[in-house]
């Protein structure tokens, strides 16, 4: 895990709710944002949840280049 953001700290902590998802632990960070292990209550299982940096999330050109 690179942990490039916030002085090496990931932004979301265990127990944080993001929409329907509940964050459990950080998995990594990179140029586009951060990835967390979370629970999807609708599926009833753990998922990887990517949280994009603001400059990525609102720039269609950057998203299309990376997908």
What can you tell me about this protein's structure?
- By secondary structure, this protein is of the alpha+beta class.
- Helices cover 16% and strands 40% of the residues.
- Strand 1 and strand 2 (21-29) form a beta hairpin.
- The chain has a four-stranded antiparallel sheet.
- It has helices spanning 54-57, 60-66; strands at residues 17-18, 21-29, 33-40, 45-52.
- The chain has two helices and four strands.
- Residues 1-5 have low confidence and may be disordered.
Structure described in brief:
This protein has helices at 54-57, 60-66, and strands at 17-18, 21-29, 33-40, 45-52. The protein is an alpha+beta fold.
Strand order of the largest sheet: 1-2-3-4
Poorly predicted runs are: 1-5
Average the pLDDT over all residues and give the rounded result: 81
Report the sheet with the most strands, covering strand number, pairing sense and barrel closure: 4 strands, antiparallel
- In DSSP terms (H or I, runs of 4 or more residues), the helix count works out at 2
Distance between the termini: 21 Å
Q: Helices and strands: which structural class?
A: alpha+beta
- Our estimate of the beta-strand percent is 35-45%
Give Rg in angstroms. Answer: 12 Å
What coarse outline follows from CA principal-axis ratios? globular
